[in-house]
Structures are given as C-alpha cells and as structure tokens.
Design a protein that fits this description.
The protein is of the alpha/beta class. It is built from 13 helices and ten strands. Helix 5 (about 80-85) links the parallel strand 2 and strand 3 (about 95). Helix 12 (about 255-260) crosses helix 13 (about 270-275). The longest helix has 14 residues, at about 195-210. The two termini are about 30 Å apart.
C-alpha cells in the first residue's frame, strides 16, 4: 500500500500563539512554566485538515498518517499530546526535538509528503530541501466544510503545482506575451512546482486504495483562463494525475471559488489571494523556488 505522510507542527495544529509569544519575549523557563499549567488547547490553523484526515481514514482500510513535529522538549509537550488524544486525531508518531536548529532531517526521516507549519523559515527550508511545505495562515473565525466525508484540498496552479516560469513571464513581459507563450507551448508540460510531489503522492495513495476508498477530492483553482488553461490540463495528463474539479478564474477573485469548493485546505503562493481566502477556509502559502535551482526533471539541483 502506498503511504501518505503529512507532518504538522504543533503550533500549526493547535493555537499556541500565546505560548509562542511567551517563549519569544520571556524565554524558555517562562515558556515551560506556561506549558506545565496549560489545561486545554484550542484548534489551530491546520486542525481542520488533520481532523478531516483522521475522520476519513477511520472509515477506510488504509489512511494517511499525520505526524507531529515540534521543537518542544519532551517534558513541555504534554499539553500537545493530551490535546491530540482528546481530539481523536490518531497521531501515533512524531518528534519533540528540544530545540533542534533544523526540522528537515526529521521530516526526511519520516518520509513526509507535506509539511504544514506556522514558521516561514521552516517552510522555506523544507521547500529548498525538496520537501513540499506551506506556511499556514491564521484560521478563519468560522469554517463550514462541505459535508461529504472526504478530504477536500485545493491548489493554485503556477508556482504551486506548476513551476514559476510562466508566472515569471507574465510579471516580466505582461499578459499578452504570457498568453502567446502558453498558446505556443500548449502541448509542452509545465515543470513541476513545489507541491507537485504532494499531488502525485495523493494520486498514488488513491490508486493503491482503489476506487472504493477515495479519501480525497482535489480542485485546481487558477487564474489561467482561455487558451492558457489547455497547458495546465495537458500537464496534469502528462503526470497521469487527476483533479476532480478545475476552476479557471481569470481575473475573478479566487476567494469566490474557494467558498464554492469549501476545502479543508487551500494552497497559493500569493499573499493577497490568501488574505481573502483565509477568511473563508484554512489557507497556506507555498514558498517560492528560484527556477534556476530546479533541474530539468523538476527536482532541486544538487
């Protein structure tokens, strides 16, 4: 069975902003004292996706695995462990590093297909190491997910699922040049972007589980429209992956379509889109990758 491993930082899974502020302003001792007296934690930005994964997985023969990754020491991790058990998230594995400088080795050791965090530097470092990662925005005040017993994930296209080369053309030369370039290259697959490996991992997981166990419903929500959508669709076909829904928004607000799809998580690379979508559904920013650092096969250059 193909595995799917999603790593979540403790601060993304639960609302630890007060604890983080105490740590930043008062130091380790004050933080540990606060942790020792914490009775209950509130859900954080990544809680909806973790809860949906746990709920869907409980009804299937195989389930994605959620792992917890934290720089906490083991003795100050009790509130997090207790909250995981109370929520029934089924998180069996994880690591409390006691202040490790980098989390990348731990993510690699677990074979993480995705890392969700509230730390921008951690998201960027993981992405640079070839591990799909995203920075969680603060959760919406209220979230009403679709009630269809599947995990709904929505992806932006360029600079998220696809490489940033086309995006760069648009910003350097304008819309007309971008559209002409995409029409001329409609049959040439776009290079993979930072989250392409995660989408492919979802596809492998669903293929291995069989048609009777579709845990995910996937949407592409992209500003591509008109002739530019052809290259995106051809690229997904060349990767032999499928999306369930595709929204070609043009210059319309992506937030409208996020509201229609109601995902447990939406990925984009542009802050101005995410500031709108984060009011509606859990949203995360994908760090950018310099195209010069991406090899022909889509992986990071050594």
């Amino acid at each position: 069975m193909s595995r799917l491993v999603i790593a979540v930082s403790a601060r993304a899974l639960f609302d630890l902003e007060d604890a983080h502020r105490i740590y930043s302003e008062q130091g380790v001792d004050a933080y540990q004292k606060h942790a020792a007296t914490t009775v209950q934690l509130k859900p954080g930005a990544a809680f909806p996706i973790a809860e949906a994964l746990a709920r869907a997985g409980a009804k299937a023969k195989s389930a994605p695995e959620i792992i917890i990754v934290s720089r906490d020491s083991a003795d100050s991790a009790i509130p997090v462990v207790r909250a995981i058990e109370q929520a029934g998230l089924g998180v069996a594995r994880g690591v409390f590093t006691g202040g490790a400088e980098s989390l990348v080795p731990y993510l690699a050791a677990f074979g993480a297909d995705l890392f969700l965090t509230k730390n921008a530097e951690d998201a960027e470092e993981a992405t640079a190491a070839g591990i799909p990662a995203a920075l969680m925005f603060d959760p919406p005040e209220s979230f009403d997910p679709a009630n269809d017993s599947v995990v709904r994930i929505a992806f932006d296209g360029d600079s998220v699922l696809f490489g940033s080369q086309a995006d760069d053309l648009y910003h350097r030369f304008g819309l007309d040049h971008f559209q002409a370039h995409e029409r001329a290259n409609a049959d040439v697959p776009l290079p993979p972007g930072p989250l392409a490996p995660f989408l492919k991992a979802i596809h492998r997981f669903q293929e291995a589980a069989g048609n009777g166990h579709r845990l995910f419903r996937i949407a592409l929500i992209t500003a591509r429209a008109g002739a530019c959508r052809t290259r995106a669709l051809n690229t997904l076909t060349s990767w032999r992956v499928q999306v369930d829904e595709a929204y070609f928004c043009g210059n319309a607000s992506k937030a409208r379509f996020v509201e229609l799809f109601r995902p447990h998580l939406f990925f984009d690379d542009k802050t101005y889109h995410l500031e709108q979508t984060a009011r509606i559904a859990p949203s995360a920013r994908v760090p950018s990758i310099d195209p010069d650092d991406v090899g022909l096969a889509g992986g990071m250059k050594p």
